[in-house]
């Protein structure tokens, strides 16, 4: 009986170690404006041009959204770190995420939280980020 417990504990430790190494291996990278435009086009086609569904598809592809917790404020703040207001931006994103949270209507949650967060200075930063691609042409 003790041997079985030891074997279960060993397998559990192995599974935990595998899960941790798998998560560490999938490292998130900062998206470029080019990546955003490419993913946006794919999402528009997948969602049949519906705005809320397109937005949620896009932010999922970019690694900025999960259906369980909404927007990842830390990752979003890293994209705009050059503005030296990461903590403030994270607070805004987290506030809007909580305020609009609706797990039964995920597309609406993503859209309304985005609209909330981008209603101020952050909205100008997003426009500036997206205009980078046009400058690259």
Automatic annotation (TrEMBL):
At the highest ranks, the source species' classification is: Eukaryota, Metazoa, Ecdysozoa, Arthropoda, Hexapoda
Q: Which UniProt keywords apply?
A: Signal
Q: Which residues form the signal peptide?
A: 1-24
- UniProt name for this protein: Odorant-binding protein 99d
Q: Name one GO molecular function term.
A: odorant binding
Note the SUPFAM superfamilies from the entry.
Insect pheromone/odorant-binding proteins (SSF47565)
